[in-house]
Design a protein that fits this description.
This protein has 486 residues and is mainly alpha-helical. The chain has one domain: Growth Hormone, Chain: A (Up-down Bundle), CATH 1.20.1250. It is 75% helix and 1% strand. Strands 1-2 form a two-stranded antiparallel sheet. Strand 1 and strand 2 form a beta hairpin. Helix 4 runs antiparallel to helix 8, helix 6 packs antiparallel against helix 7 and helix 14 packs antiparallel against helix 18. The radius of gyration is 23 Å and the shape is globular. The relative contact order is 0.14. Bound molecules: beta-D-glucopyranose. Beta-D-glucopyranose binds next to helix 6, helix 14, helix 19 and helix 20.
Length: 486
């Protein structure tokens, strides 16, 4: 296991191509923030001659994608176990490509909503099949870094979407261009996948031992025959008991299900997407002015440092995750996020006792601190852990369940952020003058409490998977041992 020699070039290139699926996940979730600003005012899409689309409709255009992702994830797990990892990713790339074209050409709100839903399905499928694929081809000692390339691609996708939004912000019907850009990564993914092999673990599940051996050799595993033997032993044990339904209810599979669902709930309920989706709104609440004369620019600009920091610290995570391990990064990340959330909570809740410039300062610094702590921990590691803990035969289904939970939780957070603030800390005067706006302080406190619960969950239930092969992890669970003991 200490032997670090493997075919790095092949494995990294493979992970990089597959990670275009992650890039599309990030791009298509991020692009709407800027596109919406133009869509809502486009006369070609106007409803009953109104100058702006009603807020309810705008909310649907944004959130239907998240629902589509939950449905895509939920309904495709078995397909990825049956058809194979490679084929399902190719199909997904095709849906992404169709979605980019469909969105760019949409000439009514109804069509926009339908295409956003279809793209959502692709995002849902890509969000777990990419880490699944990378995990199943990677050598164990580099698996953490390689699977985290997916999260890097997500963050690059989000950042790229902000830049694209900025680039087309002043162009007539710029939103169409914003969407069509997604076609490029879709094609790279779809075409690139044709040249990549199916994963050895899926091949062995389907009795294609020779092909599996070829892939393991290509990866340059130091001890290929041991890998093949271990996979076969695991599959044999699984084979006795595993139809999908039986497997999901088997007692030894339960901890894996709890880990997968738990880690996804915490990833979302610490409130990451209030920052990713609402950072312009939060900055506005904290009193950042709109001075440049271009409201679209003003709304997109503050997101840029957030997006860039997210990318940079995901790279840091890639270097640390196989050295420090998963759990130390989770502890560090959660502690940092909780502190930043408490600072945000205090700043907004006690806004009356501090000056408006102090509030601006607190909001900006806290958000800038929160992001790197997420990026080194729950961002990459949640997706990594779900690619590690399930037995091979039901890895697709297991990951799809955890991923569905992720997207549903995302939906709940994005849809309740403002109401949570209103219920707990009420309203405060808008920085610009007479209006009253929601005070988000209480929502941040709630996310902080969830972060503390997350720390307890990591300590008491999460296994340290660093350096173990997928088969060793599976055998640990099969032996009925507590996850923490790995
Ligand atoms: C999460 C997304 C989030 C992104 C931010 C991903 O791991 O699943 O919900 O928007 O990280 O970087």
């Amino acid at each position: 296991m200490k032997d670090k020699k493997y075919n790095k070039g092949f494995v990294i290139l493979t992970a990089a191509i597959v990670a275009f699926g992650g890039l599309l996940f990030g791009f298509d979730t991020g692009v709407i923030s800027g596109a919406l600003l133009l869509i809502k005012q486009d006369p070609a899409l106007a409803i009953n001659g109104m100058p702006e689309l009603p807020e309810r409709i705008q909310e649907w255009i944004v959130s239907i994608t998240v629902l589509g992702a939950a449905i895509g994830a939920m309904s495709s797990g078995r397909i990825s176990d049956k058809l194979g990892r490679k084929k399902i990713i190719i199909i997904t790339a095709f849906i992404f490509a169709a979605g980019s074209i469909g969105l760019a050409l949409a000439n009514s709100v109804a069509l926009l909503i339908i295409w956003r839903f279809i793209v959502g399905i692709a995002i849902g499928v890509a969000s777990y099949t990419v880490p699944l694929y990378i995990s199943e081809v990677s050598p164990s000692h580099a698996r953490g870094a390689l699977v985290s390339i997916n999260q890097l691609a997500i963050t690059v996708g989000i950042f790229a979407s902000y830049l694209v939004d900025l680039g087309f912000a002043e162009v007539a019907e710029g939103w169409r261009w914003m969407f069509i850009v997604g076609l490029v990564p879709s094609l790279i993914l779809g075409i690139g996948m044709f040249f990549l092999p199916e994963t050895p673990r899926w091949l062995l599940t389907n009795n294609e031992e020779d092909n599996a051996r070829k892939v393991v050799n290509k990866v340059g595993e130091p001890n290929p025959e041991k890998i093949i033997d271990d996979i076969k032993v695991s599959l044999k044990k699984e084979g006795k008991q595993l139809s999908t339904r039986k497997a999901l209810s088997a007692k030894w599979v339960r901890p894996a299900l709890i880990i997968g669902i738990g880690v996804m709930l915490f990833q979302q309920f610490v409130g990451i997407n209030t920052i990713i989706y609402y950072s312009p709104t939060i900055f506005e609440m904290a009193g950042f002015g709109a001075e440049s004369g271009s409201p679209v620019y003003d709304a997109i600009l503050p997101s840029l440092p957030i997006g860039a920091i997210n990318v940079i610290f995901t790279i840091v995570a890639i270097f640390l995750v196989d050295k420090w391990g998963r759990k130390p990064l989770l502890y560090l990340g959660l502690i940092g996020m909780v502190l930043a959330l408490v600072a945000l909570g205090i700043g907004f809740t006690f806004h009356e006792s501090i000056s408006s410039s102090t509030l601006r300062y607190i909001a900006f610094i806290s958000m800038i601190i929160y992001i790197p702590f997420f990026a080194i921990s729950l961002g990459p590691i949640a997706w990594l852990l779900i690619s590690e803990v399930y037995p091979t035969k039901i890895r697709g289904v297991g990951m799809s369940i955890a991923t569905m939970v992720n997207w549903l939780a995302n939906f709940v957070v994005a849809n309740t952020f403002l109401s949570l603030g209103k219920i707990t800390t009420g309203q405060m005067p808008a920085p610009t003058g007479d209006d009253m706006i929601t005070n988000p302080g209480g929502a941040f406190f709630i996310y902080a409490v969830i972060g503390i619960l997350g720390l307890i969950f990591v300590y008491s239930y999460i296994p340290e998977t660093k350096g173990h092969t997928l088969e060793e992890i599976e055998q640990h669970f099969q032996a009925g041992k507590h996850p923490k003991e790995l």
